[in-house]
Specification:
single chain, globular, mainly alpha, 2 domains, Arp2/3 complex 21 kDa subunit ARPC3
Length: 282
């Protein structure tokens, strides 16, 4: 065979082999991509049509999300908690015809902590909600310690508000214990019940999750706080009045604000979905 024929055949062989290698490379890459897709987390579709599976995977890994607005939601939760605890030092009495309603000032803002807690549990899961609740627990203790140090510190000669400061922010150990115990049990129960209802019914019946968790959490919180804080200080009838009126008020606020809570949950989920999509594109 002529040398030119040999060279031509060799060139053709090389080209065929190059094409085969290129085809195998594409096929291998396609299979790898398909395998990765098959092992990726399923998409979680919520009632708002949002995708938050990546947040759940981060939660399972025990990592704090760096996207979205989790940090803002958590800060609002802790801020509402601290403000409510300060306002709770005042008892408020309202005459409603034949009834006399007694509740503390913390009832003005405290229901919002349960709404924000519902958002944490619904959007980010129990792990993130528990993390935020424990942060609030630590901040409560720090705030009580700070107020106590400020109270016992000698006032300046021209400072005339020492008694008022002690009356409002002075630390009474039993009130600190009542607040911390009620808060910790109530919030953890609220989050746990919401997540368990969601596991049972899925994304449907958000109203049942929100109200059911609040009914359980607020009951534990109100009873624990009222009895630890006021037993032996005021008559039992006043304690019962505080507990019943406070509980009905807080659950009622949650029910009235249910459309608002729906809107906030959907809004936060949309923001988280957008943040996740941007991160995937980047």
């Amino acid at each position: 065979m002529p040398a030119e024929g040999v060279n031509a055949m060799s060139t053709d062989d090389v080209r065929v082999r190059e094409n085969d290698l290129h085809t195998k490379h594409i096929a291998t890459g396609t299979r790898a991509h398909s395998a990765a897709s098959a092992h990726s987390e399923p998409v979680e579709t919520t009632h708002a049509g949002t995708h938050i599976a990546s947040i759940s995977s981060v939660s399972d890994a025990g990592k704090v999300p760096t996207r979205g607005i989790y940090d803002i939601v958590a800060v609002c939760f802790v801020a509402f908690l601290l403000l409510s605890n300060i306002a709770a030092t005042k008892l408020i009495e309202l005459d409603a015809g034949p009834l006399t309603l007694v509740f503390d000032g913390g009832a003005i803002l405290f229901p919002l902590t349960y709404i924000v807690g519902d958002v944490l549990s619904e959007v980010y899961g129990f792990r993130f909600a528990r993390r935020t609740i424990l942060v609030g627990f630590v901040v409560q203790i720090l705030a009580s310690f700070t107020f106590w140090l400020a109270q016992i510190a000698p006032p300046a000669a021209d400072y005339t508000g020492q008694e008022a400061f002690a009356a409002v922010l002075g630390v009474v150990p039993r009130f600190v214990a009542a607040s911390i115990c009620g808060y910790l049990v109530g919030q953890l129960l609220n989050s746990y019940v919401l997540v368990k209802i969601k596991e049972r019914w899925g994304e449907k019946h958000l109203w049942a999750r929100l109200l059911g968790s609040t009914v359980a959490g607020e009951a534990a919180d109100t009873v624990i706080f009222c009895f630890i804080a006021w037993i032996g200080v005021v008559p039992f009838s006043t304690i019962a009045n505080l507990a019943i009126v406070g509980y009905i008020y807080k659950v009622g606020v949650e029910a009235v604000l249910l459309p608002f809570t729906y809107a906030v949950v959907g809004w936060v989920k949309r923001i988280e979905r957008t943040a996740i999509e941007r991160e995937h594109i980047a």
